[in-house]
UniProtKB/TrEMBL annotation:
This is mRNA export factor. It is found in: Cytoplasm; Nucleus. The lineage of its organism: Eukaryota, Metazoa, Cnidaria, Anthozoa, Hexacorallia. InterPro entries: WD40/YVTN_repeat-like_dom_sf, WD40_PAC1, WD40_repeat_CS, WD40_repeat_dom_sf, WD40_rpt. It comes from the Eukaryota.
């Protein structure tokens, strides 16, 4: 934990320069008054450009968001829904991904400036801990029984593993293509590349390739999220893969039955007028519930989020539509708060960019909406 001072991390409010007011919102969770048709709570002082990644701390309700405005920001989320800006750090280029250290005191960031940094929240200092030849697309902390490291994936066609105390990587893995998405749930890592590549790694003892998987989707990988099986000691057993073509694949690494693997359509319009016409949107992010492993959320360029039960193969809820795409999402460690960000994702080209519409981050109390369907 960061200590119990109201400013957190041992950092005084004076060091938050430029991060906006530290005055908390007075709205309770789920009773927001902002321009959101679901009336979800709006996070104070969001980034100035589109959010690329949202992550809750594994230890407490602290939320981080990386953005195309070259910065990463951290908020404390109080039980009554107050969001308090805590601190912020910058890169010299857009930050494409972020993740937490398992102890909840440090954050890692991956940027187009070809670096990854480690941000110590207690001291509010950030140092470079990884380097690539091209933009870094993904970063994930790996906590194994016998080692710990940072896994970074880049558009330079490599996956690298770093001991953060050393300037040189522990291991460099050459890939057939650029890294587009990745996820880690020890002892499994999944990497999605350009040209619809999917590679599974096992991380026990040291990282090694386990198998390559033919993508069940016909279009470009956009996001991937690993799921666990409570019947197998909560071990990771497969992943959900989202594509630019409004579709998600549920894929087991070792399916007991070929029918275990399936795909479903999502983030599509119902069609207007001509019944054959349908708007199809990218799936921008997927998050699995941390308590009920069968439940997941998807968010898309259509400005909606949906909740699903993969075991019951059922949609639990689809949100009303926001005025911008939803770019990232996550659950807190208890699974009662769902965070999601809206911002332009350029999916419709530059002519649809409206500088008057600013990025926002919302928090939703999802306790009642996310319950497994009885079989």
């Amino acid at each position: 934990m960061f200590g119990t001072t109201s400013t957190g991390f041992g950092v005084g409010t004076s060091t938050f320069g430029g991060f906006g007011s530290t005055t908390p919102s007075t709205n309770t969770l789920g009773l927001g008054t902002q321009e959101n048709p679901m009336k979800d709570l709006e996070v104070q002082s969001p980034p100035d450009d589109t959010v690329s990644s949202l992550k809750f701390s594994p230890k407490a309700d602290f939320l981080i968001a990386s953005s195309w405005a070259n910065d990463i920001r951290c908020w404390e989320v109080r039980e009554n829904g107050q969001t308090i800006p805590k601190a912020q750090q910058n890169h010299t280029g857009p930050i494409l991904d972020c993740c937490w250290h398992d102890d909840g005191t440090k954050v890692f960031t991956a940027s187009t400036d070809k670096q990854c940094k480690m941000w110590d929240l207690n001291s509010n200092q950030a140092i470079q801990v990884a380097q690539h030849d091209k933009p870094v697309k993904t970063c994930h902390w790996v906590q194994a029984p016998n080692y710990s490291c940072l896994m970074t994936g880049s558009w330079d066609n490599t996956l690298k593993f770093w001991d953060t105390r050393s300037n040189n990587p522990m291991m460099v893995v050459s890939l057939p293509e650029r890294v587009y998405c990745a996820d880690v749930v020890y002892p499994m890592a999944i990497v999605g590349t350009a040209q619809r590549g999917i590679i599974c790694y096992q991380l026990e003892n040291q990282p090694s390739e386990y198998k390559r998987i033919d993508s069940p989707l016909k279009y470009q990988n956009r996001c991937v999220s690993i799921f666990r099986d409570p019947k197998k000691n909560n071990q990771p057993v497969g992943f959900a893969l989202g594509s630019v073509e409004g579709r998600v694949a549920i894929q087991f690494i070792q399916p007991q039955n070929p029918k275990d693997n399936f795909t479903f359509k999502c983030h599509r319009s119902n069609g207007t007028g001509n019944a054959n016409f349908q708007d199809i949107y990218a799936v921008n992010d997927i998050a699995f519930h941390p308590v009920h492993f069968c439940l997941l959320a998807t968010v898309g360029s259509d400005g909606k989020f949906s909740f699903w039960d993969k075991d019951a193969r059922t949609k639990l809820k689809t949100s009303e539509q926001l005025n911008m795409p939803i770019t990232a999402c996550c659950f807190n460690s208890k699974g009662n708060i769902f965070a999601y960000s809206s911002g332009y994702d350029w999916s419709k080209g530059h002519e649809y960019f409206n500088p008057q519409l600013k990025p926002k981050i919302f928090l939703r109390n999802c306790t009642d909406e996310l319950k497994p369907r009885k079989k």
